[in-house]
Amino acid sequence: ETISVIGLGYIGLPTAAMFASRKKKVIGVDVNQKAVDTINRGEIHIVEPDLDMMVHAAVTEGYLKATTKPESADAFLIAVPTPFLPYAEGGIPEPDLSYIKAASEAIAPVLKKGDLVILESTSPVGATEQMAEWLSTARPDLSFPQVAGEGADINIAHCPERVLPGHVVRELVENDRVIGGMTAKCSSRAVELYKTFVLGECVITNARTAEMAKLTENSCRDVQIAFANELSIICDKLDIDVWELISLANRHPRINILQPGPGVGGHCIAVDPWFIVSKTPEEAKLIHTARKVNDAKPDWVINKVKIAIADFLQANPEKTAKDVTIACYGLAFKADIDDLRESPALKIAEKIINIHKGEVLLIEPNIKQDKKYFNAHLCSHNYASENADIHLMLVDHSEFKNKEIEGGVIVDCKGVWNKKT
Ligand code: SAJ
């Protein structure tokens, strides 16, 4: 049995390596020639603990190879991005399914009777049916489940990934899997495949419910973080320490409030709820509002920094704005990772660099290499804590936790220094 994984990114590559580690022959396909070459050397182009060893072993033992051109296989797993289409400020972002379409059209010529095609990409409701349409248009000689039902030549299912970046290798094995086949046969084929390495339960449903389940998980988290972020703004106004407040409320046996922060980042939680909102804009009121609350938090933080600058200048009348040094602690989208995608901390730091006349220092212990233009601003924690006038805590990396800040004005978005947000 040969398995082909289309899209060798944060989900596709670990999944491909996992099948290969169970001695399945895996063909990884990606449009990025550089990524393909890197993988074929037994190296990786993304950062994820333990993945480098797995890919290295899979390639050297001959179970995994990467290519830019799809080849014949028995099962195809599609793990390509589903970003937004461009949208107007304040509008509702619509999902961009063009990568799924391109992947479908790329594998269509090599499909044969009995093959299984699984969509793993996080997708709006209806995307799996849409994928089946694209495949059947490209291959009129084969039958697909939306028309042929259980007797179809090709089996199709949606099985969303749900792994947490930074813990992908463990969660791929341990997490339960939602398996949404277009027919019962499609589901049982998919379960059989995932059982190769999944120790969690494989729970069967239909494709639309599986699509919605994934969107629901991330929307639920987004709504809960929005609640925490709104609380932090309310508490700031009422002169209450939100961190103390949440820890007190969480002593109630049925309350579990999440942590506020500078906003919501990453490529999932800040994106997926829009797939629900764009499909059902009239109905998805709470989910839409939560998105707006979380997206507005970075600007609220920037305003707090402006207030801190004004306070500092009032206390030091001999100084002007260009004498004020601001240190931003953390750039990643969350603690203890190096991923900058959709990072509110990065967005805030960039904006401060643009608007502030004085020096801006950036501290990001997880970024080892020089990164773009903000390289010039990167400095050590010690240098920043001794030299900055305003200390802006953006990401609660472990490295920051036991270090105190002496002097200066503190704006703490993560409660690390136990001061008000
Ligand atoms: N955040 C807070 N407060 C919190 C928790 C998180 O502000 O109390 C922020 C983080 O700082 C970050 C953002 O939310 O900016 C998202 O972080 P996260 O750790 O909640 O989630 P992700 O984006 O790393 O991964 C999520 C996971 N989904 C859920 O936990 C429901 C993961 O299981 C999914 O597989 C992943 O999205 C995905 O790929 O969809």
TrEMBL record:
This is UDP-N-acetyl-D-mannosaminuronic acid dehydrogenase. GO terms for biological process: polysaccharide biosynthetic process. Pfam families: UDPG_MGDP_dh (PF00984), UDPG_MGDP_dh_C (PF03720), UDPG_MGDP_dh_N (PF03721). GO terms for molecular function: NAD binding; oxidoreductase activity, acting on the CH-CH group of donors, NAD or NADP as acceptor; oxidoreductase activity, acting on the CH-OH group of donors, NAD or NADP as acceptor. Belongs to the UDP-glucose/GDP-mannose dehydrogenase family. SUPFAM superfamilies: 6-phosphogluconate dehydrogenase C-terminal domain-like, NAD(P)-binding Rossmann-fold domains, UDP-glucose/GDP-mannose dehydrogenase C-terminal domain. InterPro entries: 6-PGluconate_DH-like_C_sf, NAD(P)-bd_dom_sf, UDP-Glc/GDP-Man, UDP-Glc/GDP-Man_DH_C, UDP-Glc/GDP-Man_DH_C_sf, UDP-Glc/GDP-Man_DH_dimer, UDP-Glc/GDP-Man_DH_N, UDP_ManNAc/GlcNAc_DH. Keywords: NAD, Oxidoreductase. Residues 327-419 form the UDP-glucose/GDP-mannose dehydrogenase C-terminal domain.
